[in-house]
Design goal:
alpha/beta, Rossmann fold, DNA polymerase, domain 1, six-stranded parallel beta sheet, two-stranded antiparallel sheet, 8 strands, about 10% strand
Amino acid sequence: MSTRIVFDLDGTLIDSAPDIHGVANTLIAPHGAQITLAQTHSFIGNGVSTFIRRMLAATSLDADLHDGLLPAFKQAYLTAFTKTEIYAGVEAALDALKAEGCPLGICTNKPLAPTHAVLDHLDLGRYFATVWGGDSLPVHKPDPAPLHAAFKALGEGPCIYVGDSEVDAQTAQEAGIPFLLYTKGYRKTPVDQIPHTAAFDDFAELPALVTRYAGSP
């Protein structure tokens, strides 16, 4: 029975921070504020609403701006992919996993519409049989419900979740799923402080890790 593999998106398969950085700064420029790319990395992971709250706090802008910025951010997010790049080795790894018969899915906190938009733009959507965004359910990661839903949509078989962050690690723990940590993404803490089944920094390692850890506790 083939291993079902679900991936996080931002910071795992793609480096989207430059586009998110651009959207954020365009929205807060009228208020006389800007954030750095490093700050953008640190704010990503818990969804758009939390990103905006972190951005407002970091720039000492009024928290009441949140509700006005949220729909504008979501709208701009739909076309925020011109600077986004696929991490090295991702497509080769996905090709190898598909060749082995592994059903693949996405579970991200990015809203679903911009998730599909960037997947289509980068021609990555063809790899994934199911895609779950931060607004697909009433809850999002680290609640395990979206991850469980993604695996359920992929049928039966061992499960592995692949992500880059503390949020992904917590989600996998809550779901009771083996977690492979991509170490070149947007994590905020050292690798040894993030619970994981195995860690990797090169996608060429991923197929072998899947074979090794499929079905692990």
